Amino acid sequence: MSAAQGIGVGEQQQLEDDQHDSGSSAPTQPGRRRATPYLLLLPGMAWLTIFFILPIATLLSTSTQTRPEGAEIGVYTQTFRVANYTDTLSEYATVFARSFTYALIATVLALAISYPLAYAIAFKVGRWRNLLLVLVVAPFFVSFLLRTVAWKQILADEGWVADALRTLHVLSPDGRIINTAPAVVIGITYNFLPFMILPIYASLERVDPRLMEAAGDLYANALTTMRKVTFPLSLPGVVAGTLLTFIPAAGDYVNSALLGDPVHTTMVGNVIDSRFLKVVDYPTAAVLSVSLMVSILVLVGLYIRRAGTEELV
Amino acid sequence: MAAPAETGGRDLRLERVTKRFGTFVAVDDLSLTIPSGSFFALLGPSGCGKTTTLRMVAGLEEPTAGTILIGDDDVTNAKPYKRPVNTVFQSYALFPHLDIFENVAFGLRRRGGKQIKAQVDEALELVELGGMARRKPAQLSGGQQQRVALARAIVNRPAVLLLDEPLGALDLKLRRQMQIELKRIQTEVGLTFVHVTHDQEEAMTMADTIAVMNGGHVEQMGGPADLYESPQTTFVANFLGQSNLIRAAVSGKSGDDLVLEVHGQKVAMPAARRASGTDDLLIGVRPEKIQLAQPGESTEGFGSNALPGGVVTDASFTGVSTQYLVRMPWGQELMVFAQNLGAAGLLRPGSKVDLHWDPAHTFALDGSLDANAGVAHEGATPVPVG
To answer: What is the ipTM of this complex?
Structure first.
């Protein structure tokens, strides 16, 4: 999206240059020069058409297909059956609700962890700043899958976390963490943490510390300064971070598959995965995909409007 | 708007305040009393400790040693938000996410005051920004932002209002205008203003009392005219305006006057204007106090002190006056400002001139002081002293 906008700006510049040129020097192949910006747009547009627009169209078309009587597995024909949506959504309503609940809890947790950390990195740690930023990004050097498997070990029944919690009687003697909803939420929170920390840090780092001094000078204590000055000024980072966490979290299936329970913690992503690849029920998978996409778009739209930072995202 | 400050009658006192940053001593054993209701200027070149002093009063720096009192309250270690002090920051530091009204109301809201709207409106009227309440800071010009910063501080009626180079970011014309504005506002609201600046003209225009700071301590404190006419150190003589400093030795007394020998010539000055007990002195005369006469010309009405034998080496016409550089027989170049009265013609470089001035316009400083102290900030090259 932003790349397309970038090209748009360049195009305008180019056009202005053209007019300028043709005014001063003799016109040299004006038609060709006017076409240049569109030629530059071509690779990007072609890429988007082949890998975004066509798949979306296919997905939409698949979502209203049905399986003819007696057809082989995996063969569907277009019958424009919109009832596919109502059928599927009523069947998987709880899974949808669960996905968004997990994503929401994980986003809130990630925000609660990230904001103080980003604040400390931006204002309090001095020369350790760069090292800490590297540490925030460091987990990316290990595969996403591997890191999630590692959490499987940490949260395992015989792992030290479960042991410690049992000793503290937080967990009953036969209680477990792995294969439960909290394990899935912990996994999601962990995996998307850097996406929350980095935008918040970038926003906080731009806040002029002299504004905080000014707030103190105007009778605001540390908490009020945070509430009235620092936090509002870092809002663009908070909005960006929550979106970057919430959107992929809502569609995530790896954490549920590895850390959850196959029945009680199933997320939309897991159902789409199994419908497409295991059951070969393409229309249902397509309906779920489209519905997930649309509901995220709507939620994000409402959220950005509420946060009032359209121009900043 | 003649209502006096609620916290009126509380002097700001600094007692033996020192601030060190590592091994660097920014403020060195500074003691000051700033009377309530005065317009006080801390004047000095960058690095003299004036801003550090201000920040210690605001609570943004903690003194290494010493005590800061407002009235009878020791605020040395009080948090900034607990002090009856507000600051107009050099960068203005307006909150970009709040509109002008909310910026000005910020301090009032924190203290949970009543009639916030009325007070904010009044403050905005005072700085002549009545119609701007709902704009954002970014939509205002530099001068307007400066006024908002001022309104935001004044509206709280602090015991002490601190101004940290508040006009530094404005262009010259706007700065002159704001100087007059600031003085008017201070008179109107009757608050104590402590103004930090490196601009001597700004300090003299506005302040009742100026403390000239250098190297972490106060060189001299007094009214603008007092400092200008009777500097006590070469730093003050050179930093506040310009001075001609000439080596002289005491050779005797005549009544209330001191007789001095200056490169073979006798000049006189009131003994009371001698700032140092040493016999080896640097006498000073301000450039505008000197009158020039070509040899043989009538010197009627001129001061009785005279140094003959000068040669004009440079003349620059500035409109109001002509600034001459005159090379004296002992090699020193002295500066003379001749007011443009239209009568006398311009003296060409090479003209021979005698210098005349009134003995009462002479001041005398300790001859062991550095005659070029405080000069460098003007961008002038050090003048060799004969």
So the answer is: 0.80
